[in-house]
Amino acid sequence: MDNVDRKILAELQMDGRLSLTELAERVNLSLSPCHRRLRALEESGAISGYRAHLDAETLGLTFEALVFVTMRDADHDTVASFEQAVATIPNVLQAQRLFGDPDYLLQVVARDLRAFQKLYDDRISTLPGVQRLSSTLVMKSVVENRPLPL
């Protein structure tokens, strides 16, 4: 990956809806070489997809919590069952396995406290292998959706 590839990636991180013509202009390439590089970046996995960034607040998802999960056991089957089950909960925006204690960090959104409490009681607390849950509320996001440093 060279500097031109990094420029392509940086431009697409800022605006994934750029047309190929606009992208080529911004990175100072003609259309064909830009298209070849773009396809190569997609095929290599450097670009894993394209999507719209939605505003949670506008869509009524104004409640955000971080949920720390401590597992009862860390054996392969328990971990796999937990990870498969947590992946089915649409309100879990991110689930990260951690070193040390706790074992997982979940970023969860909901309409309000009542919706979060129902989600917590009905889905999160019943996930396979969970020993203990601890939650904290997000006051505000200071940095989010930051482009990767290229």
Summarize this structure as a short list of keywords or feature phrases.
Arc Repressor Mutant, subunit A; Alpha-Beta Plaits; alpha+beta; 4 strands; 150 residues; 37% helix
How would you characterize the overall build of this protein?
The chain has 150 residues and is α+β, with helices and mostly antiparallel strands. The chain folds into two domains: 3-44, Arc Repressor Mutant, subunit A, CATH 1.10.10; 63-137, Alpha-Beta Plaits (2-Layer Sandwich). The chain contains five helices and four strands; from the N terminus they run αααβαββαβ. The protein has helices spanning 3-14, 20-26, 31-44, 76-86, 113-124; strands spanning 63-71, 92-97, 104-110, 130-137. A four-stranded antiparallel β-sheet has the order 2-3-1-4. Strand 2 (92-97) and strand 3 form a beta hairpin. The chain is elongated and about 55 Å long. The model has no long low-confidence stretch (mean pLDDT 96).
Topology diagram in text:
Layout: H1 3-14, H2 20-26, H3 31-44, E1 63-71, H4 76-86, E2 92-97, E3 104-110, H5 113-124, E4 130-137
Antiparallel strand pairs: 1-3, 1-4, 2-3
CATH top-level class of the largest domain: Alpha Beta
Rg over CA atoms, rounded to whole Å, is 20 Å
Topology-level CATH name of the largest domain? Alpha-Beta Plaits
Number of helices: 5
Compute the number of strand runs.
Answer: 4
Please tell me the total number of domains: 2
Please tell me the CATH architecture of the largest domain by its name: 2-Layer Sandwich
What is the oligomeric state here? Answer: single chain
Sheet with most strands: strand arrangement: 2-3-1-4
Determine the structural class based on helices, strands and strand pairing: alpha+beta
> Span from first to last CA?
11 Å
Note the overall shape.
elongated
- Helical proportion, percent range: 25-40%
Please state roughly what percent of the residues sit in beta strands, choosing from under 5%, 5-15%, 15-25%, 25-35%, 35-45% or over 45%: 15-25%
